Amino acid sequence: MFFANKGYKLDRAFVKSISSIALPMMMAQLINSSVNLIDNIMVGQLGGFAIGGVASANRYFYLGLAVIMGVSNGTAIFIAQFYGAKRQNKVQESFRLSVIVTLVLLLPVMLAAILFPDTIIRFFNKAPGLLPAGRAYLPIVGIALIPQGLSFCTQSAMRAVGDTRTPLKIAIVTVLTNVVFNYLLIFGHMGFPRLEVAGAAAGTLIARIVELILTLGVAHKSNYYFTTRIRDMFKISRDIVKEVSAKSFPLTINELFYGSAMAMIFKLYATRGTDVMAAMTILGTNSDLFFIIYSGLAAATFVVVSQPLGANKLDEARANGYKMLRFSSYLSVIFASLMFISSFIVPEFYLVAPEVKSMAATFVRIYSVFYLVYTTNVQCFYTVRSGGDTKSSMIMDSGFFWLVNIPIVAMAAYWTDWSIYWVFLIGQFVDVFKMILALYLVKCEGWVKNLTVACSDDLPEGDNQELLSE
Q1: Rounded to whole angstroms, how far apart are CA atoms 220 and 224?
Q2: Does the pLDDT at position 424 exceed 90?
Q3: Is 376 inside any structural domain?
């Protein structure tokens, strides 16, 4: 492998340690993905236009999720590093900043979903049959972004300090709530009104509200290292705003560009017809079941790389970063095999045309072939992000997507009459070149640095000097 000459071998203690961190997070993501699968199967009973309209709406909401992930993951770097340095007031200030910025950025996304649903749906596909479903779904799920954002910020902070079990427990309750209310409201069971697509959106909103109540309740009761009082929410020092913003802003922009790139790719694939949109929805839901390792790898990287960096244990963090890359590659082989097998099973649950099922199954098999490439790219991103190397993060993520992936797929979509299979395959093959770039950027080691020394106003002068000298 690329890092074989580094000598960073996996040992049983390391694998056991990261597994205890990653597995609860992976289970939480598996539960969420399973519910998304069930949701889509339920909506799929309403027809191809319903699933296509919801798919278009969800592509827009990926932009909202991008805001949440960008802010939360950016601040989580500092939360993890300050936690490793045992500096509680800076952990709290970083958490406060993530909550405020997330709310400010999500408000316009929510308002656009409420006020301009038709415009958003038409951007992805102008088929008139998609509008009723999208119009019913967008405004309600738009409101759900706010409680979802607050929950994500808090749970991201939990994971940054090493607690992945609590988010798992909350996820179990949340997804059960979602499934129950979707079943009741989509089809009108047990005396509830039959709301169809609007019922799916209402079920999501109810589940997100329940999730927020549970998350805030647990955070208050458990008194985490980042727990803060509401009246102190705006007590954030200037150095934290400066340093966290310097790292979080590029990550947020990266997530927004990445989210918009995913929406654009979806639009390009959709040039081959509405059947493609339905097949892509099945692909996305099915693949999410196997992309759960990414959330686990992210949580583990925060603990075994970011926290040692914050404690100024640079050699340990460096070794752990390379070990995580090796571990992720081994794990990806297992998940790729399972994904390939799932292509013969999952599409059959949908009440769609046979050609849509066949198309979705082929997409899943192509994904499984490139799974090692995706996983390597993702773990490289997590590694460089752990040390705040936002420049490399943007280059290997949204930068590559907009400058390479999208132009190549756009040329294939608009300048040729190739089938969707060839267009899709080209879009995935480009990621091989991205992997080469990502591995190079990791090897440059711009991520091996302690970010906490820039925010040292609360340390005694002697401690400052010691950290800076190291």
Answers
A1: 8
A2: yes
A3: yes
**What does the alpha-carbon distance between residue 312 and residue 36 come to, in Å, rounded to a whole number?**
41
pLDDT tens digit string along 95-148? 998 889 888 888 888 898 888 887 887 776 666 766 777 788 888 988 988 998
Q: Dump pLDDT digits (tens) for 342-351.
A: 989 888 877 7
Q: Judge contact between 394 and 451, C-beta under 8 A.
A: no
Query: Is residue 290 helix, strand or coil?
Result: coil
Residue 396 located in a structural domain? yes
Could you tell me if residue 273 is left (phi over 0), alpha (psi between -120 and 50 degrees) or otherwise beta?
left
Helix ranges (H only) for 161-237 are 165-187, 197-222
Cα separations (Å) of 263 from 59, 123, 132, 344, 450? 6, 10, 20, 27, 35
| Amino acid at the residue 233 | M
Instruction: Look at residue 470 and tell me if it is in a domain.
Output: no
Considering the domain boundaries, does residue 2 fall inside one? no
Distance CA 343, CA 340 (A): 5
- CA 283-420-134 angle, 5° bins: 55
Domain total for the chain? 1
Print the domain residue range for 96.
20-455
CA-to-CA distance for 195 and 188, rounded, in angstroms? 7
Q: Summarize pLDDT for 6-54 with one digit per residue, the tens.
A: 557 777 888 887 887 778 777 777 776 666 667 667 776 676 667 767 7
Instruction: For the chain, give the number of residues.
Output: 470
Cα-only R_g, the chain = 22
